[in-house]
Amino acid sequence: MKTLNATHYESIPTYPSKDERRRGAVHGIIETPQGSTYKYALDNEHGIIALKAVLPEGYRWPFDYGFIPQTLGDDGDPLDLLMLLADGTFSGCMVKARILGAIRLSKNGVENDRFIGAPVPMPGRTLFTDEYETLSDLPQNLRRQIEDFLCGYSEGEGNKIELHPAVESSEARELVEHSRKAFRKKAA
Predict the structure, then answer these.
(1) Which of 22, 32, 154, 168 could cross-link with 65 by S-S, CB 3.0 to 4.6 Å?
(2) Phi and psi for 187 in degrees, rounded to 5?
(3) For the segment 16-46, what is each residue's pLDDT rounded down to a tens digit?
(4) Distances (CA, A) of 25 to 60, 70, 97
């Protein structure tokens, strides 16, 4: 059995298994827990999640935030993932997520999409996200709150944000696969 050092996040596969991949599941690594007024991010050099920034006054993470391992976005970082959970987890927590879609946006002229995920349903427990299959299933006010937060906190940090039309689950999963191929090409 292969041993994996938990601080080597780049070694965690994008997909939990072939079967879960077909159902649209990915691994998500939480960097910033829900409710935090800080932003945490993976420090690749040291293989640890570190404090990156303080959010602008009045902002708190509405949900857990992190990344999809072994992916490479246009900004040079792994794909960003906002996890819809009723309660926050913790920095470094790995979750199995269903990709519901992606909020497409540019940050300072560079594509910097935010993928929206929900936990894979768990036996014995009903989660508020179990009924959601794609972004269109989210209540309109929740989706608007997510978009407002993602644009607002980043603009509060001095970034120029441009919101583009969101994509639903199937197209978002194609973007994940494209970014996984980009990661593998760069690693080769």
Answers:
(1) 32
(2) -75, -20
(3) 988 888 888 999 999 999 999 999 999 888 8
(4) 27, 14, 5
